[in-house]
Design a protein that fits this description.
Strand order of the largest sheet: 1-2
Strand content: 15-25%
Order of helices and strands: HEEH
Oligomer: single chain
Number of strands: 2
Distance between the termini: 29 Å
């Protein structure tokens, strides 16, 4: 398991922190914050503003065995 610590200077309540945490975990776990060369990372919310998911219009770059030899 990887632990990521984020420090924000804001007055957030526990519910707001959990909402932001859910979005950040989704972005990190799908690769939406790494390996972006061209394309879009789209964050989806419903009409009430509830987070629904992340959509990528590209494949995140991943190091492959062939890349390691270069």
């Amino acid at each position: 398991m990887t632990e990521i610590k984020l420090s924000i200077e804001a007055n957030l309540n526990v519910e707001e922190i959990i909402k932001y945490q859910e979005i950040l975990v989704a972005l990190v776990s799908c690769g939406g914050l790494s390996g972006v060369k061209s394309g879009q990372t789209i964050i989806h919310f419903d009409k009430e503003g509830v987070f629904k998911g992340v959509q990528l219009s590209y494949w995140p770059w991943r190091k492959r065995p062939l890349d390691k030899q270069k």
